[in-house]
Amino acid sequence: MAIVTFTSDLGDNSHYPAVVKGIILSLYPDVTLVDVTHNVPSFDIMQAAYVLRHTYHAFPAGSIHLISVDPESKGQAEGVVMAYDGHFFVGPNNGLMSLITNGAEAEASRISHPGLIREAYPRSFRAARLFAPA
Question: What is the architecture of the domain spanning 3-131?
Fold first, then answer.
């Protein structure tokens, strides 16, 4: 059974984390979802990287770590999938991934398959629109 962790700045008092988790469970019903935190200070990729650097290794190899923290206005950074230390990280290409690896080498690929995009969600809600389906 796949494990997907979710770290964001969406807040625990908003419906947005539930929307993202609903999309993931609709596409992958057998996945185990784990909320790391949704209280990263808004747009703070340094704090998000700190949280992920100190938590990802507690999960089994092959776990997927979904990150939704993007300081760019309207989420303009492209989405990426990064393989690092036996784990997969999905999120914006905004410098966050290199902060997680602390500059160590990692493989990364741009999320570009048009069939993944959920058009029902606004471009600014990329966690639902692009990251969750990936």
Answer: 3-Layer(aba) Sandwich (3.40)
